Structures are given as C-alpha cells and as structure tokens.
Amino acid sequence: MPMSLWQKGCALATLIWAAGIAWGSLSPATDLPQHLPWDKFNHFVAYAGLAAGLRLTGCRWSVACGVTVAFSIGIEYLQVRVPGRHGGDWGDILANALGAGAGLLLLALVQRGKSKRRRRLSGQ
User: Fold this and answer.
1) Are 47 and 64 spatial neighbours (Cβ–Cβ below 8 Å)?
2) How far apart are CA 15 and CA 50, in angstroms?
3) For the whole model, what pTM was predicted?
4) Could you tell me the residue range of the domain that residue 55 belongs to?
5) What's the distance, CA 73 to chain centroid?
6) What is the pLDDT of residue 124?
7) Residue 47 counted as domain residue
C-alpha cells in the first residue's frame, strides 16, 4: 500500500530527527556544548521521538522499536571513533531503548484516546 501524504511528511520529519541525533552523537566533543544537563533524559527523549516518528510512517510497532534500538547501538559503536567521545555506553543504549518504548507507548495511548473520542462522537 502506498504511503499517504501524512506518512510521507512523518517520514521526512523522522529522517531529519534521525540526522539530528546522528549529528549530535557523532560530532567531536569539542564541537558541542561542554555541559549538557540531563544526558540520559536527552537520550530518552530523542529516541522516543525517533520511534514514534517511525511508527507514524506506517512501520509496525516491533519494526519501529527494533530499528530505533539498532540505530542507537550503531551510533554508540560509531562514537568510539569520534575524537573526544567514548561511545559504547550501555547506559546510553538503555536510555535510548527505554525512550523508544516510552515513545511508542505514549503514541499508542494518544491514538487509543483519539479512537475512543471518534467512536463517542459518532454515537457508536
């Protein structure tokens, strides 16, 4: 089934989001602000958005979660080669995976609420 215009827009936004994650994660440490507060929370939110974006493009829940976690692991592996970055941080991977799950859960709750509201308004 072809993608709707909405899904194409979500795909573009998700691609830009993923590029932002990659840029922030793979830039040398000297190019980034020295004190970023709430590091694990930033990871959590970034990957929650990525997983939700993938789901909104039409990916299955399991695919959206799996691709997000694989992307996270790939980024952590690539960070090992970036000057001033450590990479391979299991705490970051855990925060990313938990964020992906939370993003998908939040999206499911929002979609469920919309569905209930539509049924109530249509009298079913």
Assistant:
1) no
2) 9
3) 0.88
4) 40-124
5) 13
6) 62
7) yes
